[in-house]
Amino acid sequence: MESLKVASQVKRRQTRRTNSVVRTPLALLLPLVGVALLVGCLSSRSVGDSKASPSEPSALGSFTVSSQVLGDQVVTPAACTAGDREFFLGADFKNQGANLVVRLVVDPLDGPAVRIFSADAQFDRSVVFRRSECSVFHFSLDSTGWRVNEVNDYRLTLQLDCSRPGESIRGSASTTHCH
To answer: Model pTM greater than 0.70?
Structure first.
């Protein structure tokens, strides 16, 4: 009986050693994989964009805006924000210099529209163009399949040539990641 207890204890020790040997490489490998994924997610430039740098983001395109409310300005957006953050289907192209935003809104009843507004006074200084007022109004808003903090990531292209008496917007912008 005594030899059975000793044999049982030896077998348990061997099992523990075997399990600890198997766990040790996994325990070391998982944090390394986690760090690699985290570093990739924190990258501040788009995939495949060799010109972008964290200190000086590259322009996603440009729009020439002419309006009595906003004046004559060139909008060169350097960032795109998905409309999911403010509960609408579409996206905002944000300009750093002129503090203007070009917003694409896809309304399920009225169709797409573009709103250009000042980030400082978004309801006081704003211009809206509907598709019917544009000779060119092409957009592509496709999900990339990614979700970041409950916000969808989109691939977005917007081309505009819209005008009416005293107001116009012309230009294009695109991005592979808008969230």
So the answer is: no
